[in-house]
Specification:
The chain has about 300 residues and is α+β, with helices and mostly antiparallel strands. The protein is built from 5 helices and 10 strands; from the N terminus they run αααβββαβββββββα. About 20% of the residues are buried.
Length: about 300
């Protein structure tokens, strides 16, 4: 006698839905174990903008709530009047529509009120946008070059001038991603945000950031610093930030730039002035042997040719 198999059964013993439920439970458990707070980066169950460490980012956060309150008040006021009018003056109560052609008072009111609301919204927003674009009098100038799929940093002016390096996703994190992400029981709060060489800047110094790209459009974005600037091939754009607190701050490329767009993190390490000076000295010391080796190679070729 043939054995009957349930329509949702993948074999004789294990229902399909049971396998699906088990897989979903494992996924939720893995995600829960992997998702922990990252200071300077995304927060667990985050709904609002992060608390910024620059004046610009704090202004952006204030503007976000300011605009939201105005829009909410306008929404409630308009729909309250509309629904009240519909309900109060419904035909079943015997009301009849008024017949008139114009009202100068009403026309002035519905013209002046939106105008004042727009001015109230545009004034603080314009001040913030103008401040965002003011890159003058910077203490440090750094060029950020976007490339698939990493960032190149060159210190152009200020303390650290001449330093340059590539910042890419940490190899261990890339390997972890290739294996399906963090496993159950792992605590990885900087997943896909850890880099091999972070961008290092001093605290309370105005940093001008010049952005460009050498292949496709990228975007350098770190929300805690209040910065998002496109990096476009053949163009030079600039922005700035002044971090007011020592720490690590994270972002990502914010422009879809190819198949590995998700593997292009940004890590900004803000140090005290003393620690930053030590870092600059260490970086320049590391570059001296490399420069010496580069000079030795042509000399060796010349000697070999002469002999």
């Amino acid at each position: 006698m043939a054995t009957k198999i349930h329509p949702l059964t993948s074999d004789k013993t294990t229902p399909f839905f049971l396998k699906t439920t088990t897989a979903l439970s494992a996924f939720v458990a893995t995600a829960t174990m992997a998702a922990t707070e990252l200071p300077g980066g995304p927060a667990y169950n985050q709904l609002n903008l992060p608390v910024g460490v620059t004046k610009i980012s704090q202004d952006q956060n204030w503007l976000h709530w300011y605009m939201l309150v105005i829009c909410t008040v306008v929404f409630i006021a308009v729909f309250s009047v509309m629904f009240y009018s519909i309900w109060k003056h419904r035909k079943s109560k015997g009301h009849k529509a008024a017949t008139f052609h114009d009202s100068l008072t009403v026309e002035i009111a519905w013209t002046l009120t939106p105008f004042l609301i727009v001015i109230a919204m545009a004034w603080p927003a314009t001040k913030t946008v103008i401040a965002m674009k003011d890159t003058t009098n910077s203490d440090l100038t750094i060029k950020a070059t976007g490339m698939q799929w990493q960032w190149g940093y060159d210190y152009i002016r200020g303390e650290g001038e001449g330093i340059g390096f590539i910042s890419a996703l940490d190899k261990e994190q890339r390997l972890l991603s290739n294996q399906g992400g963090p496993k159950s029981g792992m605590s990885v709060n900087d997943y896909l945000l850890k880099v091999d060489n972070p961008l290092v800047v001093p605290v309370n110094k105005k940093v001008r950031l010049i952005t460009t790209a050498n292949d496709v459009i990228h975007a350098w974005a770190v929300q805690s610093l209040g910065v998002r600037q496109d990096a476009i091939p053949g163009f030079v754009r600039d922005t700035w930030f002044r971090a007011e607190k020592v720490g690590d701050y994270y972002g990502q490329c914010a422009e879809l730039c190819g198949k590995e767009h998700a593997y292009m993190p940004i890590h900004v390490k803000v140090l005290s002035q003393e620690d930053y000076s030590k870092w600059v000295l260490a970086e320049k010391t590391k570059s001296i042997p490399a420069a010496a080796k580069a000079e030795e190679k042509p000399a060796a070729k010349t000697d070999a040719t002469a002999s």
